[in-house]
Amino acid sequence: MSRLLIEGCEVVVTMDDAGTELAGGSILIEDGVVSWVGQGQLPETADAGRIDGAGTVAVPGLVNTHHHLYQTLTRARAQDQGLFGWLRELYPVWADVDAEWERAAARVSLAELALSGCTTTTDHHYLFPPDRAGILEAEIEAARELGIRFHPCRGSMDLGQSRGGLPPDSVVEDTDDALAATEEAITRHHDPGPGSMLRIAVAPCSPFSVTERLMRDSADLARRLGVRMHTHIAETLDEETFCIETFDRRPLELLDDWGWLGHDVWLAHCVHLDDKDVRRVAETETGVAWCPTSNLRLGSGIAPAVALLRERARVGLGVDGSASNDAGNLLAEARQALLVSRARGAPGGLSAREVLRVATRGGAACLGRDDVGSLEPGKRADVALFSVHDLSHAGAEVDPVAAVVLCGPARPRHLLVEGRPVVRDGRLAAADEEDIAAEGHRAARRIAAGAAR
Ligand SMILES: [Zn+2]
């Protein structure tokens, strides 16, 4: 048995139901699972490896619930557009995506996430040009290399411009081909077991890029195979207008009609929900991937995350993008979420601890994971250790836990997934950061040159 002791943290934030925080706490990990968390007298650990927790706050690894890894190589474009204009400008660039692009983008964005304290991430990839093989496999390989827990969604689009959709016909798939490829991805890659490092979800893209048949058949497929469902909804007023004009339904009503609300579904954005929608999301136990930075960058609005949380809905955080965020820093996203929750006027905004809960337990609930998101005996040992003795936290001695969200954002000193190091002393443990950056820059230059032709 492999044993590892994280010893003497400034505080261990367990994120258990009671919100227990342990000053001077330690964590014992056995074979990738938390076996003991406590203060004072340590269990017998003579044979255990050791990590010095002094000067750090230990939190459960953060969970990212919405992303498009491939977009990382098209950052800082369409800078002044709303969603539809931004998509129209970028679809022709994205039409060139292939496995080499995906590999470089995934390594950059997964490294960024790990270096912001993220241990589990999803990806929503919905662009599969017909003649390009290996895109999904390229990102799975990158996650495996870096050691991050991965929930890639097999996305899809089948409603091109010629049939009233927003994307050009060149980037959409045939409906049956998309469904068959989605089923194949699940059969090949999905691991439903405890501690799984890889789970696939089914994820048609959005109301303005997919047909009703693809939505309904995707739901049937996901439920037949026991995997989760994900899509974009209620992101902008443009989308709401599209849904009303096309279907005479508001976006959330449309999903409800199509069997797309439930405990096995999580939805990106949910910016434009009315009070009835908020209650419907909560009562159906549908998850919400809250993406505050992306929603600000595209001018989409501010999601009613506080109202959703007050109704006890499942809410997680997503960095989205990274062409609509331009950054992939999940701890920065937590800080952004806190600030945005207060933009509608205090009091009533979220506390630093509430936001940390959204970024950990909330995200885990969206992804249907009851084995990550907290540091309790029996949970997988996904741990982020943030130093609170560095420059950016000097002066925050009164509340080091809140400081993790309010100050910085800082890199984790150490990041563990299944008790294995992903970040060690602030650097990636399994790959070279400069090498990943260089590959990303090279691939992005190739993309920019292709788009200019
Ligand atoms: Zn998105």
Keywords:
single chain, 453 residues, alpha/beta, seven-stranded mixed β-sheet, four-stranded mixed β-sheet, 14 helices, 36% helix, 20% strand, globular, binds zinc ion
Provide a short characterization of the protein structure:
The protein is an alpha/beta fold.
Task: Give an overview of the whole structure.
The protein starts with a strand and ends with a helix. The chain contains 14 helices and 19 strands. The protein is an alpha/beta fold and 453 residues long. The longest helix has 20 residues, at 433-452. The structure holds zinc ion (ZN). Zinc ion (ZN) binds next to loops. Zinc ion is lined by residues 66, 68, 124, 232, 268, 320.
Q: Helix count, per DSSP?
A: 14
How many beta-strand runs? 19
Low-confidence stretches: none
Strand content: 15-25%
* Cα radius of gyration in angstroms: 21 Å
